[in-house]
Specification:
Layout: H1 3-35, H2 39-64
Length: about 60
């Protein structure tokens, strides 16, 4: 196996892992939304807030350097 084949195989496995993790997150969120109506909505709102805070923090740290 040459390096190009090895890299392609690695990319394929990485994508498969990513898709598997996304499916697991979706299934957990779906289950929680069935148990606690509105869970997914609150989860996504919290995720958006956390992402905004992360971006602000990264910008602050970038400005210090």
């Amino acid at each position: 196996m040459d390096i190009d084949q090895w890299l392609e195989r690695l990319r394929h496995r990485d994508r498969a892992l990513y898709n598997s993790m996304a499916l697991e997150v979706w299934s957990i969120a779906r289950t929680m939304d069935n148990l606690i109506p509105g869970f997914w909505n609150r989860f996504m709102e919290n995720r958006q807030t956390a992402l905004k805070q992360f971006v602000i923090q990264q910008k602050r740290e970038g400005n210090r350097e």
